[in-house]
Amino acid sequence: IASRPNEFFMGTAGGGVWETTNYGYTWRNISDKYFKDGAIGAMAVAASNPNVIYVGTGDSAPRNTEVTGAGMYKSTDGGKTWSNSLYVDAKTGAIDLVMDPTHPSTLYAAMWQAVRKPWTLQDGGPGSGLYKTTDGGAHWADFKNNLPTVAVRDIRFQPQWDDMAIATHGRALYILDDLRPLQQYSCTTPGKPFAIGPRTSYEYTLHSDDEG
Q: At residue 139, does pLDDT exceed 80?
């Protein structure tokens, strides 16, 4: 945490969320009383208020002991208490989470529907995909149109050009080359019509100075 350099949070593969306030000398668990599962797939701390923490539960990498998780949790008091912010279903966990760099209440969550059986891994399904909130997790909307029903593995921003890249599990890399219309969309009224205008276009004319 930039404003508290002695404090760190750690999400583990099977032990939940841990906190240290003395540069890692000692650690304490801050999630066991609240989380159903101990597998942590993603975590984000609000730069504007480090007491606001989001944690996605569920294994982010498939393995023989893969744990689905129970969606997304949020704390507003530095991890003292937690509430479930996003729950899709019993087969879907959160494996990546990013905050909009210019809108701290806007987050994008990558969800993965997966169930590990002794003989196979059931990978993908309607619960997988990209989800968004514009009010700090109170309301979420899914943005899965035209995306395959597989896990969204990574979400990355390119703030200089307002672009967002989404990497899916074995299907493709998708790029939204203008994030501004999506930033204007409010998840609190998902049924309300929303118009997206075209991006400003430019025309260039090249002139040659070569007279020959």
A: yes
